[in-house]
Amino acid sequence: MRRAPALSFLLVTVFVDMLGLGLIVPITPALLTALTGDPAGGARWAGWIQSSYGLLQFLAAPVLGRAADRYGRRPVLLLSLSCLGVDYLAHATAPAAGWLLAFHALAGACAGTTTVVDAYVADVTAPPARARAYGLLGAAFALGFTAGPALGGLLGAVDVRLPFVAAAALALANVAYGLFVLPESRPGDRTTALSARPAFAVLDVLRRPVLGRLALARGAADVARITGQVLWTFLVVHRFGWSTAHLGLVMAASALAGALFQALATGPVVRRLGDRRAAVLGGAAGALTLAGTALASAPWEVYVLQGLGLLGSIGGAAARSWLSRATGDDEQGTVQGAVTGIGALADTAVPAAASALFAWSLAGPLPGLPFLVAAAFAAASALLLAATPAPPEARQAQL
């Protein structure tokens, strides 16, 4: 197994995914407003488009996960990346918002990148090294999202559709790169049955004692994470009046610090604490960060909380490593697909629900209320992890 080229490709894939997303984030409102002729209409279409992606991902991710077990990781990953490139091209050429909805839904149906990447890492890394590998993926994620918005803003100033062309070129170039350098990590098992019933795949995972707790903990953590991603800028602007430049600087600095921290600290911390304790510590740090953000009354408190939140990223990598250890080698794709499906449900429902709660809370004394709710979900995730038996290797090390 050529592990170094494979892991390098996965890191490039995650980086390009987030770079492409970051490229289009600053431009999407302008494009939809231009297509609909109305800012309010553009905002409504943005919500429908994002929800269609999450819904189709929920329906398709478990199927793609099983396909990765049946046919191998490589073809499913390259198919997912190809669909992403087509989606970006549609954004660059679509004459109406309805076209964007259709193609973004197609991209959601093909959105198996996270599922297959997580399964691939489990295939090519030994269990003690997985947390570090997942930490490196988290670093690539953060770096891509750091560079994307700045580049997207520059390209969008030239033409509102140019960032979508650039994102499509990156995604399709990554497909070409993968065709030449990506080896198959695990031959497919044609005895693995495909199922078109994604809810059954999710329920099958949830019924298992250890996997069910880990999947629920991951889902609760996703609710907390998405709430913070959707509302953080709105809260700090409302509370402190930060400018767009100030926001961009703080977000870029935070993302860069997170990337460095995940790349350099995840491996040593998880080796010392083990997957379980590191995951619980990260979940607790995330809960404290969100609760502190809800109550912060001065900008310096926000800066300190951003630093505390770095520990949460280690928890996420440790939890992914733990989930891979608890999963058999012949069903990594199936389980990762089910977990991705749970996350897709959160992606579908949480943005609308959290935004509505935030709008309601603005009329009261605590506009940070959604962050307290998110902190409760993060704490529930940490408690679920704490109540789950440690991986066998960790228990043996503690004897």
TrEMBL record:
Its primary localisation, in coarse terms, equals: membrane
Q: Where in the cell is it found?
A: Cell membrane
Membrane topology of this protein: Multi-pass membrane protein
The residue ranges of the Major facilitator superfamily (MFS) profile domain are: 6-393
From the record, give the transmembrane residue ranges: 7-25, 45-64, 76-94, 100-121, 133-158, 164-182, 278-297, 303-323, 335-363, 369-387
One of this protein's Pfam families, by short name? MFS_1
Q: Which keywords fit this entry according to its UniProt record?
A: Membrane, Transmembrane, Transmembrane helix, Transport
State the superkingdom. Bacteria
Q: Which SUPFAM superfamilies match?
A: MFS general substrate transporter
Concerning its family, UniProt says: Belongs to the major facilitator superfamily. TCR/Tet family.
Task: Give the protein's recorded name.
Answer: Major facilitator superfamily (MFS) profile domain-containing protein
Instruction: Give the species.
Output: Dactylosporangium salmoneum
